Amino acid sequence: MQRALSGTLLLVAAPALFLGCGPASAEKHTDSKMAPVVKPAKGEEVATFAAGCFWSMEAIFEEIKGVSRVEPGYSGGKVKNPTYEQVSSSATGHAEAVDIHFDPKVVSYQDLVEVLLTLRDPTTVDQQGPDYGPQYRSVIFYRSEAQKKSAEEMIKQIAKKGLWKDPLVIRVEPFTNFYVAEDYHRDYFKKNPDKIYCQRMISPKIEALKVKFKDKAKK
After folding, report:
1. Which residue among 110, 120, 152, 190 is buried most deeply as judged by most CB within 10 Å?
2. Which residues contact 162 (CB under 8 A, 6 or more apart)?
3. What is the mean pLDDT of the chain?
């Protein structure tokens, strides 16, 4: 990996593979069944976000009041029904994403965007922590003009607060598709809390959520 700093080209060692969310850190599975997309319950809405590994995203948003379901999957690409391996190769154009089913009477879409922009790094292009590649890009896939407006307004608010020292580069794009990930990705954090990736990359985010968004976190 190469990075430029003050006109000088530096060689930066890639992050240790055991910290990554990609195939190198995932177990081999013979069960690659993919579930169909679930429709939201009556009165619920859906938010679709991409911001790095969907294991982390699922675990974070499942802890928010008013959220009934979080589906890990793939969004924003051109290939129908992509597999994890295909998406990880960066060949399909998809980003790892989550579909979040929520009750707008309990938690607003803008609240969810605020959590996203606070707990996930919106300043890095095609990167989230140790995970690199276009499949880890940060995108808010809006499903209505109201969602688009809320997302853009919250981005402005977060930028104005100076929460991040670097400019926000998260994209706001219209929703086009979402494909549910293979079954073994569902509830990854709940099933594997002791794995190094979960301990180092997900657990701290859950703790941060309970501190920074105490009023929105489930007990």
Report:
1. 120
2. none
3. 89
Q: Could you give the CA distance from residue 204 to residue 125 in angstroms, rounded to a whole number?
A: 22
Gyration radius of the chain's alpha carbons: 17
Picking from 212, 195, 182, the residue whose alpha carbon sits closest to that of residue 87 is 182
Is the CB of residue 74 less than 8 Å from the CB of residue 37?
Answer: no
Between CA 15 and CA 26 the distance in angstroms is 16
Burial 43-80 (b: 16+ CB within 10 A, else e): ebbbbbbbbbbbbbbbbbbbbbebbebbbbbbbbbeee
E strands present in 108-170: 127-128, 131-132, 138-142
Bridge-based pairing state of the strands 2-5 and 8-11: antiparallel
C-alpha 21/C-alpha 63 separation (Å) is 20
24 to 18, 34, 55, 95, 199: CA distances (angstroms):
8, 21, 15, 18, 17
CA distance to 100, 102, 107, 191, per residue, from 66 (Å): 10, 5, 6, 23
Residue 185: Cβ within 10 Å count: 22
Using the predicted structure, report yes or no on whether residue 35 has a pLDDT greater than 70.
yes
Are 136 and 95 contacting, i.e. CB atoms less than 8 angstroms apart? yes
Asked about 53 being catalytic, the answer comes back as yes
> How many other β-carbons are positioned within 10 Å of the β-carbon of residue 103?
16
Does pLDDT of 95 surpass 60?
Answer: yes
pLDDT band at residue 20 using 50, 70 and 90 as cut-offs: low
